[in-house]
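Dissemination and training. As part of the outreach component of the grant, students in the summer workshop were shown how a complex can be specified as a set of sequence lines and then modelled as a single object. The example used during the hands-on session is reproduced here so that future cohorts can follow it. Participants entered these lines:
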Amino acid sequence: MMNNFTWHTPTKVHFGKDQVSRLGEEAAAIGCKALLAYGGGSIKRSGLYDRALALLRESGVEVVELPGIEPNPRVASANEGARLCREHGLELIIALGGGSVLDCCKLIAAAAFYDGDAWDLVEDNSLAGRTLPIIDVMTLAATGSELDNSAVISNPALNRKMPFFCDRAWPAVSILDPTYTQTVSKWQTMCGSSDIMSHIMETYFVLGSNSISDGFCETLLRTVIENTPKALANPDDYEARAEIMWASSFGCNGLLALGNTPSCWVCHGIEHELSAFYDITHGAGLAIVTPRWLRHSLNAATAPRIAHYGERVFGLAHQDDPVAGANAAIGALVSFYRGIGLPLTLQEVGIKDDAHVGEMAEHAMRFSPFDQAFAPLTLEDVRAILMDCFKEP
Amino acid sequence: MMNNFTWHTPTKVHFGKDQVSRLGEEAAAIGCKALLAYGGGSIKRSGLYDRALALLRESGVEVVELPGIEPNPRVASANEGARLCREHGLELIIALGGGSVLDCCKLIAAAAFYDGDAWDLVEDNSLAGRTLPIIDVMTLAATGSELDNSAVISNPALNRKMPFFCDRAWPAVSILDPTYTQTVSKWQTMCGSSDIMSHIMETYFVLGSNSISDGFCETLLRTVIENTPKALANPDDYEARAEIMWASSFGCNGLLALGNTPSCWVCHGIEHELSAFYDITHGAGLAIVTPRWLRHSLNAATAPRIAHYGERVFGLAHQDDPVAGANAAIGALVSFYRGIGLPLTLQEVGIKDDAHVGEMAEHAMRFSPFDQAFAPLTLEDVRAILMDCFKEP
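and obtained this result:
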């Protein structure tokens, strides 16, 4: 199936060793006063912070700093960044870090021109108008934010975690040096890979697709599955880190979905509630939700596709019974998660009881129309998926 | 292997049925006086010409026409187009047709700002400066010109056919409606598919690659191999035409090659000489040259990759002897070409003797450094490949 589509990926990517050396010239080509946004101290330990400051100084770019952006970035940080941009008349935003920092910067880019609470823009994306240009230097392979027009923002006061889409928030330049991901902890590495795989599976398990989309998705899933154990065994394995990082960039930018029926992003919808209520790591939550979602979605209509996925992605042998093939595929996915060390139940990430299951299920249903999903889901289905997350997969 | 790279694909693509309806608004967003370039009468027979004129008129865009661009576009047409752009102060170029029309327009876009013969820009791409923006409506799936920065231009006076690369010649907007390709003849359809496959194979058979590049190439090759017989059997098969058309767009735009060692584009280098000397159809020439090139490149070092290609692309069974596997893969490629009706020898395209073989081999060697190819080639090798093209494959 090849539905009509529009494809436009305006971001320029510099990928590879020491590509950060281009930061100064790329920034200076846009403006001379920048917001420099980052999270915790990892960019200081890795030397990226000093390097970036030196390059920007050499190119005549002044910076105002916004440190402390949270792992699940909060709207308060975006409001603070927007205030700094307005107050200092900043011309561009430089994000140093992972997807959380960049996501926050996408909202800042729009909020800098919005007179009000940045959360309004998340609640109603159409309120976003002009944006500041963004350059990012990524230190983590996970969200794919470096090559898309979306962000995920948390509002702890409301227990909400919601997407922000904005076509003017594509990064102008994304600098991806896999070397920086070599210092990422094992935990963040496995959670990053889980996030990448989830983006691809959300795109792959839809009602209608085509051979180009399917093949691209299967390729990237194989790439992550093959390289994640290598990166965990040897964190300095540049080739493994590089393949994972480049795979991550295509997770959400639309390329994989072109011509397909839309995805409902079910696992992301459900996991965002887990993160919003319990602040767990996104990739860990996805590894817990995804196998339950696939089991719950398995029926006569969907079995052949899940079985095909098992053959193409995990190299499983073809079985004449597609339901058996599909169950084997889901089993292979669970084994992969287990093999790299990811948690497989909610208890393992510290969620002890089902007190918020009903509320989370209701919120998740607002994320997108789950009745259009690969296998349509009701509120009761979502609740059942969440309850399954307490049992062994 | 993941070498450093920069990736930037600024073109906006509108893909699908009746996407031409966006032509007026997209053109008017750029300017109000356009060069309208096209080839022969096919766009008049298909109704595209009248539709485009009506849409442009409605949007207030005036046009100056450049008809008659040749199948292997000639530098004289580019000079004429550049003259019209200057004389009438045109602000953009609209290409209606196949890759040849668009290729010519890319050279016109640069030549409009160059005071001299457009051939100078082909001989020395660095002479190209500013360019006019281009919008294309493609009627043929083959060259991938709609999503890249290159063109191939012929100069009959010199018996030369050479590439023109220009980073400012990416189309601003490419409109791809597979419906238009439904009226393309069987001959042009099979030659188009051969061209697409060649672009991908030139990218795939290199000294070093990575799993993302490999998987994307294999996906697109399978897509073309599966859909071309469908499109030939039923020219109105929209899904088949759509998958071929979208596969064609990724042939040369760099996405498939990211991180790999550079390709020498050997078959294109050799085939361009055949087209330059004998004006044969590019895709037909490629189908003749490619199997001989692969046979000539088969050695202990390259056999495993050619064999792997046979397994992944043609679904051949694994053989313990990689040379046997590689020979089977080349045989499968020849069978595919034969099955869809492509010529397999130079005699079949009207080249009766080897009078120009030496000269063509010498010219081909100027195309790129064939000593860096998948299997390095000398002048004698290229001559031998050309001589093999007279024998049954």
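The domain at 12-180 of chain B is CATH 3.40.50.1970 (Rossmann fold). Students were then asked to discuss how this feature might be tested experimentally.
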